[in-house]
């Protein structure tokens, strides 16, 4: 397997709006990120992924771009960006931008032009039809075809109606996208995270879809269109291949079988993808707010299947939360009785699977979900659209609020908790969204004072990963896949052999398949007393290394 800097790195995702505000307007900004670069360098991360910072009306918090060449004024100026990029590079870190090119904002010049008349030169930058050609639904609720009276026609939007889908069939669209990508790469940006990139090629026969299983529609109708790989190979040829950069494709709808079409080295498309296999385990047929139980054996099967599918040919990003999914310690761990142990156990998983790990801002200090007592405190368009839909259908809003507490995206968008000052040190103004009230207990300042904190455990794990490339490039094999308590696996190559045991439960658990004590030494555990009992304690993680 080829060795690359981006395989040996750890990514840290910054949601700029909620990271650090230096202007007192309650919104995070680029100078705020600059202020925290030493904190990130100390943590040990290598690549910073910024969620979109381009000009946007923020219908979807920046994932609705109105100008790809300008910085959102709330975040600062292009000079601030240039300073940020320079400061990141000075610390031998790298920075990747969020490339959102499946759609733009409806306030983008291209769309403002496109909607003025049926023969405007920009008309075919988007998908217009005189009547909706199918029953497609937006992922954020409601029909995916929006009527526009100016030309008495409908346009396609797979997300909000303020996010019209770009028509990639039009070579002028592709040319504009590639030009914009070169603009940022010529500034020295080190790559892109690509938003819903599997959606850019549409099935032009626009078949109806069966919404009894939304995730199936995403996989079989919205994603993996007929010209997708042609477009990605063209993008690689025209742009990416000319720079030493990395790309990570957000890959909803991509199955393990299709993975290496995107990331196989010989394909010359993307460096890696992050899949949604584990992320939809608790989504019922009605989607994320139709919550169903998940079993550890199912979770392990997903990890296994993907590792096998990628094999020696491709590469994936390893993540357990991001700005779209609940906080990992609340969703997969136990953010109450075993907050610290389970956060560290999950960190061990992140750092010892085969792939490039991604830490989402605040996860390194164990930030948790939040349960606002009313919809008025929520800001996410996905949540608010869902509430409007349930209200219209006369459904039980209390039931939805409970589902939002578990699955809502604002769980991960409450501001970073820097200290126990008012507003957690995030802002001197009124934050754009309420701070999680547990900031007095969970914050960076306190974490840095505690040598046994989750933060220092992440640092320890990242150092272990760097010291032992077998944990990056080595083979992976699960042990005892049927256990509903323990996730155990081996990592090995000619440089080393490692066993990892993770107890995903509140009970003691047998260490099935434990390595021969004589041949292995304990390298890391999340129980400070390090008295190694025969059984794993609740949420105990252990890494053994063959001596
Ligand atoms: O997300 C695409 C996507 O599939 C997610 O919307 C995910 O399925 C959903 O959030 C789960 O509820 C990307 C961005 O990450 C997301 O923030 C944007 O809202 C979306 O695309 C539109 O750009």
What does this structure look like?
- There is one protein chain.
- The chain is α/β, with parallel strands linked by helices and about 550 residues long.
- Helix content is about 30%, strand content about 15%.
- The chain has 16 helices and 20 strands.
- The longest helix has 16 residues.
- The structure holds 1-O-alpha-D-glucopyranosyl-D-fructose (TEU).
CATH topology of the largest domain: TIM Barrel
Strand order across the largest sheet: 11-10-9-5-2-1-15-14
- As a whole number of angstroms, the C-alpha radius of gyration is 23 Å
Please count the beta strands (DSSP E, at least 2 residues each): 20
User: Under the CATH scheme, which class of the largest domain?
Assistant: Alpha Beta
Bound molecules: 1-O-alpha-D-glucopyranosyl-D-fructose
What is the strand content? Answer: 15-25%
- Taking pLDDT < 50 over at least 5 consecutive residues as the criterion, the unreliable ranges are none
Largest sheet: 8 strands, parallel
N→C terminal distance? 25 Å
Q: Helical region count?
A: 16
CATH superfamily of the largest domain: Glycosidases
Number of domains: 3
Helix content range: 25-40%
CATH architecture of the largest domain: Alpha-Beta Barrel
Mean pLDDT: 96
Shape: globular
Structural class: alpha/beta
SSE topology:
Layout: E1 11-14, H1 30-35, H2 37-43, E2 47-50, E3 54-55, E4 67-71, H3 78-90, E5 94-99, H4 109-114, E6 128-129, E7 145-148, E8 153-156, H5 171-186, E9 191-194, H6 214-222, H7 228-238, E10 246-250, H8 256-263, E11 272-274, E12 283-284, E13 287-291, H9 296-310, E14 317-318, H10 328-331, H11 339-352, E15 356-360, H12 381-392, H13 397-407, H14 444-449, H15 454-467, H16 470-473, E16 475-479, E17 486-493, E18 496-503, E19 520-525, E20 541-546
Parallel strand pairs: 1-2, 1-15, 2-5, 5-9, 9-10, 10-11, 14-15
Antiparallel strand pairs: 3-4, 6-8, 7-8, 12-13, 16-17, 17-18, 18-20, 19-20
């Amino acid at each position: 397997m080829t060795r690359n800097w981006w395989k040996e790195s750890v990514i840290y995702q910054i949601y700029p709006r909620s990271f650090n505000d230096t202007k007192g307007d309650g919104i995070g900004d680029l100078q705020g990120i600059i202020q925290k670069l030493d904190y990130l360098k100390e943590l040990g991360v290598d690549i910073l992924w910024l969620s979109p910072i381009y000009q946007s009306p923020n219908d979807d918090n920046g994932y609705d771009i109105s100008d790809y060449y300008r910085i959102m004024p709330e975040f600062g100026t292009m000079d601030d960006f240039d300073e940020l990029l320079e400061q990141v590079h000075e610390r031998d870190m790298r920075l990747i931008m969020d490339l959102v090119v499946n759609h733009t904002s409806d306030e983008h010049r291209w769309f403002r032009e496109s909607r003025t008349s049926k023969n405007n030169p920009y008309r075919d930058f988007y998908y217009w039809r005189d009547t909706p050609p199918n029953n497609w639904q937006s992922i954020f609720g409601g029909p995916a075809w929006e009527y526009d009276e100016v030309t008495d026609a409908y346009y396609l939007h797979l997300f909000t109606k303020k996010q019209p889908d770009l028509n990639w069939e039009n070579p002028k669209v592709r040319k504009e996208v590639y030009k914009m990508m070169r603009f940022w790469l010529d500034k020295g940006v080190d790559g892109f995270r690509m938003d819903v990139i599997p959606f850019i090629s549409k099935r032009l026969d626009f078949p109806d879809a069966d919404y009894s299983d939304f995730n199936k529609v995403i996989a079989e109708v919205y994603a993996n269109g007929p010209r997708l790989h042609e477009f990605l190979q063209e993008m690689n040829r025209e742009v990416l291949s000319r720079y030493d950069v990395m790309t990570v494709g957000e890959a909803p709808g991509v199955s393990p079988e299709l993975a290496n079409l995107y990331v196989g080295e010989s394909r010359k498309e993307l460096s890696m993808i992050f899949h949604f296999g584990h992320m939809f385990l608790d989504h019922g047929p009605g989607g994320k707010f139709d919550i169903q139980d998940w079993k550890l054996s199912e979770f392990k099967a997903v990890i296994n299947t993907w590792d096998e599918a990628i094999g020696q040919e491709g590469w994936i990003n390893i993540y357990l939360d991001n700005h779209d999914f609940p906080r990992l310690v609340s969703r997969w761990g136990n953010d109450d009785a075993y907050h610290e142990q389970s956060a560290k156990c999950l960190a061990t998983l992140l750092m010892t699977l085969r792939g490039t790990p991604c830490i989402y801002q605040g996860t390194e200090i164990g930030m948790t979900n939040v349960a606002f007592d009313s919809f008025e405190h929520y800001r996410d368009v996905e949540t608010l659209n869902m509430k409007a839909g349930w209200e219209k259908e006369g459904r039980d809003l209390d039931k939805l609020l409970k589902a939002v507490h578990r699955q809502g995206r604002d769980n991960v968008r409450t501001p970073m908790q820097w200290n126990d000052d008012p507003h957690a040190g995030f802002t001197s103004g009124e934050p754009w969204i309420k701070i999680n009230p547990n900031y007095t207990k969970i914050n960076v300042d306190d974490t840095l004072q505690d040598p046994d904190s989750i933060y220092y455990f992440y640092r320890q794990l990242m150092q272990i990963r760097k010291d032992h490339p077998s944990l990056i490039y080595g083979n992976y094999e699960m042990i005892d896949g049927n256990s509903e308590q323990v996730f155990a696996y081996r990592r090995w190559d000619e440089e080393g052999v490692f066993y990892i045991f993770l107890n995903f439960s509140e009970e003691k658990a047998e260490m099935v398949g434990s390595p021969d004590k004589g041949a292995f030494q304990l390298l890391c555990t999340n129980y400070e007393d390090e008295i190694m009992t025969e059984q794993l304690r609740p949420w105990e993680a252990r890494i053994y290394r063959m001596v």
